[in-house]
């Protein structure tokens, strides 16, 4: 299935009966009409139909814009740069988001994740009710159950990463989780409870471990499904969150195999491509690093460069590209170029697929292909796990492999590009940043964790993953605010322990009596004043 067909199929699933269809049905006899279902619901009476349902259990919304704008990858570039005057600013200033329920918003993301969970629950219920299966059908049903459980595990995990406090086993039973429904909805307004963060992660682990044991790789288009490989990659992210390092290494080795280099993005081939060619290639299924791709409705392509709140050259330099800001002490230039200058800084990673819904008006929706997990992330998760278990030679190997693939000018004969323990430890000895995960870090571990976090930031600019690192390590974030004269007038910040590391749950959940996140009651409305717009 090619990309545009996939988009079309996703859009058509679940379409309600239209008025013109009802008129057409009126031409059919009454008896024939009564023989049919009164709507377009599908009867889940075989594995094939359930598998079709599961294709709509993957996210149709993206978290990238809200994660990037919230993180320290964003700065206020002033009124000369475009921005939605409320959408981006509410996120940038750590306010409760109330402006929209559509794509690229916390509310839209919340709603869509629960739609995915609903699909998974419906599929699991249908699989449970299948009877009289042959051995081959039973095998396929088991793999489908694994996929459904992985959909639910991913959805709940990302909801927790977005709307809950950072995970800490010492406080997880004190903080709010998210509702974790496991049965299909059979009433209009069901009574849901948020439960604790511990209960949420217990559910994530149960679904992941059971799903991983069942899931297979037998798909015509495996890059658009959870498979054994992509599920293992997701597992390295989940277990890193929990600090279970042996599990990270075990699953990471399964993903990367004995030749991890062939799994990573080879940035050398991007150098001779045009800007648009690079954008198209970055999220193609032919890139080995893209372990699972998701098609999401998003305007991120239009926002990534133009938004008032986004990447600037100074952020890029201080994040590790400048020769004073990385442990190799060289000017780091990725093989894939960086574009845009001060106002429109961006990396060519995102290609928009525009689907027209009104030909005459020329209007429609933008879609992007989003890698949900990549081989580079797995490599970084493994390297960090090696450092946390004092296996520093393996941690050095992980960083070295990344350098060979990513940095322009790399040569094995050039000592400047050789990663060593001494270079890492000596560079970070004077680094004053304080990392505060829930587990202890000694001096050497701290140096390696900072190195991997810095390289993750370099690799994943404008992909959203920086926000997850900020949460995990309780890193401070300070956002500048420019006045209408583009002069610095004030700033707003997050510090370790701030409850606003969790996005506020949507206001619409009040109808379900869900307890909101604390910390937003005294939001500073002056941050939204006309002076700063």
Quick structural gist:
The protein has 533 residues and is mainly alpha-helical. It has 19 helices and seven strands.
Can you put this structure into words, describing what you see?
- With 533 residues, the chain is mostly helical.
- The protein is built from 19 helices and seven strands.
- The chain has helices spanning 3-12, 19-25, 30-34, 47-54, 64-70, 87-92, 106-129, 135-163, 197-214, 228-242, 245-256, 275-282, 300-306, 313-321, 375-388, 392-406, 421-428, 443-459, 465-473; strands spanning 75-76, 290-297, 309-310, 353-358, 363-374, 477-482, 488-494.
- It has a three-stranded antiparallel sheet with strand order 2-5-4. A two-stranded antiparallel sheet has the order 1-3.
- Helix 4 runs parallel beside helix 8 and helix 15 (375-388) packs antiparallel against helix 16.
- It is globular and about 65 Å long.
- The chain starts with a helix and ends in a 39-residue tail after the last strand.
């Amino acid at each position: 299935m090619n990309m545009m067909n996939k988009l079309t199929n996703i859009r058509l699933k679940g379409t309600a009966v239209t008025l013109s269809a009802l008129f057409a049905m009126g031409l059919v006899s009454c008896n024939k009409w009564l023989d049919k279902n009164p709507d377009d619901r599908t009867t889940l009476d075989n594995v094939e139909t359930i598998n079709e349902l599961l294709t709509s259990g993957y996210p149709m919304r993206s978290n990238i814009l809200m994660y990037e704008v919230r993180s320290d990858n964003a700065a206020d570039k002033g009124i000369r740069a475009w921005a939605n005057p409320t959408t981006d600013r509410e996120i940038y200033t750590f306010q409760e988001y109330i402006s929209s329920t559509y794509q690229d918003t916390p509310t839209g993301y919340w709603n869509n994740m629960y739609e995915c969970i609903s699909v998974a629950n419906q599929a699991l219920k249908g699989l449970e009710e299948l009877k009289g299966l042959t051995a081959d059908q039973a095998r396929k049903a088991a793999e489908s159950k694994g996929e459904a459980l992985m959909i639910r595990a991913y959805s709940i995990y990302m909801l927790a990463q977005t709307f809950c406090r950072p995970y800490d086993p010492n406080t997880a039973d004190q903080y709010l989780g998210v509702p974790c429904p496991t049965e299909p909805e059979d009433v209009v307004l069901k009574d849901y409870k948020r439960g604790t963060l511990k209960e949420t992660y217990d559910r994530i682990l149960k679904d992941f471990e059971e799903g991983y044991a069942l899931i297979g790789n037998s798909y015509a288009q495996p890059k658009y499904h959870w498979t054994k490989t992509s599920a293992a990659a997701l597992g390295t992210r989940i277990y890193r969150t929990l600090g279970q390092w042996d599990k990270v290494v075990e699953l990471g080795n399964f993903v990367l195999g004995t030749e991890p280099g062939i799994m990573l993005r080879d940035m050398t081939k991007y150098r001779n491509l045009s800007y648009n060619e690079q954008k198209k290639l970055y999220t193609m299924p032919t890139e080995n690093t893209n372990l699972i791709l998701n098609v999401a409705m998003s305007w991120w392509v239009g926002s990534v460069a133009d938004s008032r709140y986004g990447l600037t050259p100074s952020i890029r330099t201080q994040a590790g590209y400048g020769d004073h800001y990385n442990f190799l002490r060289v000017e780091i230039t990725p093989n894939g170029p960086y574009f845009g200058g001060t106002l429109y800084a961006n990396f060519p990673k995102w290609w928009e697929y525009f689907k027209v819904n009104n030909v005459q008006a020329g209007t429609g929706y933008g879609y992007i292909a989003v890698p949900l997990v990549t081989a580079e992330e797995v490599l970084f998760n493994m390297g960090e796990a090696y450092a946390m278990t004092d296996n520093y030679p393996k941690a050095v190997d992980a960083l070295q492999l990344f350098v060979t693939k990513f940095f322009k000018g790399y040569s094995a004969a050039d000592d400047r590009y050789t990663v060593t323990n001494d270079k890492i430890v000596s560079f970070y000895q004077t680094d004053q940043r304080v990392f505060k995960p829930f587990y202890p870090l000694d001096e050497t571990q701290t140096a390696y964790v900072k190195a991997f976090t810095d390289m993750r930031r370099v690799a994943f600019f404008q992909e959203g993953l920086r926000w997850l690192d900020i949460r995990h390590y309780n890193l401070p974030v300070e956002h500048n605010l420019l006045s209408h004269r583009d002069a610095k007038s004030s700033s707003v910040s997050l510090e370790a322990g701030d409850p606003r590391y969790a996005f506020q749950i949507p206001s619409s959940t009040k109808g379900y009596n869900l307890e909101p996140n604390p910390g937003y009651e005294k939001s500073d409305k002056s941050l939204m004043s006309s002076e700063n717009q």
